Amino acid sequence: MSNKLISYDNAMEIIKGEIKRLSPRTEEIDLLNSLNYILAEDVIADIDMPPFDNSAMDGYAIKFSDKKNWEIIGEISAGNYSSLTLSEGDAVLITTGSKIPPEADTVIPIEDVETSGNALVLKPNAHFKKGMNIRTKGNDLEKGKITVSSFTKIGPNVIAALASCGKIKVKVYNKLKIAVLSTGDELIPVNQIPHDDKIRASNNYSLSAAITGINHLPVNLGFAKDDKEIIRRKIKDALEMDIDMLITTGGVSVGKYDYLLELFDEAGIEKKFWRVNIKPGKPIYFGVYKKDKKKILVFGLPGNPVSSLVNFYIFIKPAVDYLYHQNEINFHTAILQHDLKKTDTKRHFSRGIIFYEEDEWRVKAEFSQSSGNLIEMSRANCLIEIEENKINPLKGEKVKCIMI
Amino acid sequence: MSNKLISYDNAMEIIKGEIKRLSPRTEEIDLLNSLNYILAEDVIADIDMPPFDNSAMDGYAIKFSDKKNWEIIGEISAGNYSSLTLSEGDAVLITTGSKIPPEADTVIPIEDVETSGNALVLKPNAHFKKGMNIRTKGNDLEKGKITVSSFTKIGPNVIAALASCGKIKVKVYNKLKIAVLSTGDELIPVNQIPHDDKIRASNNYSLSAAITGINHLPVNLGFAKDDKEIIRRKIKDALEMDIDMLITTGGVSVGKYDYLLELFDEAGIEKKFWRVNIKPGKPIYFGVYKKDKKKILVFGLPGNPVSSLVNFYIFIKPAVDYLYHQNEINFHTAILQHDLKKTDTKRHFSRGIIFYEEDEWRVKAEFSQSSGNLIEMSRANCLIEIEENKINPLKGEKVKCIMI
After folding, report:
1. Structural domains in chain A, sorted by start
2. Phi-psi bin for A85: left (phi > 0), alpha (psi -120 to 50), beta?
3. Which chain B residue has the Cα nearest residue A368?
4. Residue B404 and residue A52: Cβ atoms within 8 Å?
5. How confident is the model at residue A3 (pLDDT cuts 50, 70, 90)?
6. pTM of the model
């Protein structure tokens, strides 16, 4: 690969082409701890669901006929089935989810009848049809069918289905281990006061949180000064670890202390691209390190805290979603509330605040959009994506907003 | 309060009126563990941000004049400031974020110049303006101003800002402790095979996961048979615990074993409403238990696994968001892909699958919409909210979809 500036789409294709060759391992975990993991097996229904014909309403189970009045002969509630013998003219009070007696074929909702003692009468004009309000056995899913497929992200609704299949242990894809190493002579620990041209090393914090936020495992390697020997050693140590990705920040720009590209090369990492036609985050590097049967993806992000976090959201998160077949519903189309300056042909990811007003999604971006402005970034809730060929989007135009 | 069916909006107002009187406690935690907590203090910038004038680009720092060519006299990269004395005609190679020498007032981007040895020439037609590409000290935020306000949800971008302020510990609101107790004679443990009219107790799993998913703390109280004495004891024990909410499932319907309302009353819980004009989840109960200076909110949800989870998303999650001043961006407006049957005047929350196609959000709901259908629910990614007065929404209409 040359050092030619490539497009965002091209860069993303290259990353996807590499990440799909990772073979994430699987593990078996307790269902109770499985929230937000990706399922790594097709889970089969071990019973019909529901397991028996049951009532969809609180009401009266009857045997359908021309009759419009009945005698209440008993009551069935969930888990308290009694084998009543029900003739035409008999009705049984039944609660939602309770098992239907074999002779009954219809449930009349409680609001459609009037009772007086054991006498039950259908209200005039009530909807009354044979078979109504009965959920038949296996209607939700038949025994032996797939309840939840592999590559499903496990939400509370999926956990409910898995619990119903008796799955107290589930096979899931392991969390990816993603190491984060910051570099830069300007960095000082967060708990110190910066003097001269120093700044606090916030990238380890923000990127580790971003990794945790997508349910993977950050491995915090701290930060290193721009000393070739130190960084060389840190990269070597990282590549020897059992990790899936290495993210570095800093050292990918044009200064004389920007050693990272040289050191990546020296460490045997194959460069796939360097520099993408985007703003912010242009200097991003991407490479692959092959190790036995495993690969480690290496992302060299710029040191700027806004750029590196934007890079995470626009490259790394979508790549991980792609690996796990996830189509995340994480963007909105919103109406721009003012003109936005964009005079170049880069793809921009501007920081914005999206809100809903007067039946429309709207987005403000009255920020300087300087990639130095971390406080502004902290107030944003989305990235406004503006494509390469779009110049100066105007107030009132619809723009794509990626939620962050 | 009477037992009159109330509207969804009315129910939500009642819940909000009660939840806002809770006074959640605060704690100080490590910044590294603070993701998704709600900040409980205004954090003040202890330094100007950025702390010094710096370059917004990789480029050359110069003193602006009519000149279009310069001599490169040195280089400054981030963290390696050297106090060069710069005259008109001198240029210093400078990387993004690096401190600007005092005499320089302008940075020319690297792509706008040509170099030959130490000679630097501005490219014809390059944009060239005094003061360009310099981020001035304090431009992002001045020392003493609020960096991040109380009630901000802590995302990775907020963590970056807090780290930049040297906050390695932050004051946050405690996670709410939310106990979950399922009731019902039909329930058996998840690891058993159901026979007759039994079903697996999935509600503790799904509701605990839903509570974890909104970053609060589930307290799993398991499940109890419909035995008055057992449930009475379980409720008493729960109310004696240090919890903020109690969620029960089952026992709020019309059967003879539906003891919960009676037992809530007996335990001294003040009923605020019972039964809301919605589908599914109509039998929901809401009450408040006063204990010393504290309140426990009590939600009695129906036993049906779909209904109870829908109740969680439409009542409990919005209530918690309200307590913490969160305006969650968690819905889309989407085009209905087919007619939907709705003949009553309840508010419906139908299970749907939202997707993006041909530049539009679209939603399918080709499900039976029976509240018994947990497998269908597990495949949904949203709830389609259809208001009371809307009858039979048609294919092509826009509907509100709450992401789950």
Report:
1. 8-25+174-323 (3.40.980.10), 35-45+140-173 (3.90.105.10), 54-135 (2.170.190.11), 331-403 (2.40.340.10)
2. beta
3. B140
4. no
5. low
6. 0.95
